[in-house]
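Lecture notes, unit on binding sites. The following record was shown on slide 14. It pairs a sequence with SN-glycerol-1-phosphate.
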Amino acid sequence: MAKHVEQLIQDKIKSEGCIHMTLLDPEKKSGYDCAIIAKNAEAGGTTAIMVGGSTVASGVEMEDAVKRIKAVVKLPVIIFPNNLTSLTGAADAIWFMSLLNSTNTYYVIDSQAIGAPMVKKLGLEAMPMGYIIVGYGGAAGYIGQARVVPYDRPELAVAYASAAELLGMRYIYLEAGSGAPQPVQPQMISAVRKYCRSTLVVGGGIRDAKAAMTAKTAGAQIIVTGTLVEEESKVTDRIAEISSALKA
Ligand code: 1GP
């Protein structure tokens, strides 16, 4: 990419306030399908494609999906890693993330230490992120052995997010878990936004423009949706509804 991914993201947040990213999971969709969905999401106005999922086990499938997506879209493609198998030099960037409320140091720092030299070797642009799992948690919470922050305890999310900010993490992701029946509550989003300066990413259980707008109004700067595009045939229309609502 001519311009660094982080610069693109920050420029767009500056001009639009809140942007949308589409998450594709190569365990749930083939590389071929991921590419079609990515192209349709691009047409709908999404800002970037994130690739990953809690149970991605094959580096081959991961790389295949990323390459196929890269071949058909101009958008940045960002790795959303669940483990070392997610690393591929075919992507533009990686959310270099620590699952802050995991009870297992593997997900907090050990896997990052093992993977960091490879991230450098591959020349991936790394964007440091504190990942905080909230409420439902889903597969990410289970696999990541997270001690989830209850939906109704925003002060705990603020504490973790503040630690992330002070550790120099430029992004904070409040994650309710893919397919969450209930997204992160607006009270938690607004509390984290109020007290932390890192760019605030919110995802899990957001399926429509109304839920996206609730998160934006509360202070989210990046909204991630995944399940929506896996279940929806009219991907372009549904993403356009969300993207245009966020821009308005
Ligand atoms: C999961 O936050 C993302 O990591 C997206 O969640 O699949 O519920 O949109 P959904």
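Take-home: The chain has one domain: 5-247.
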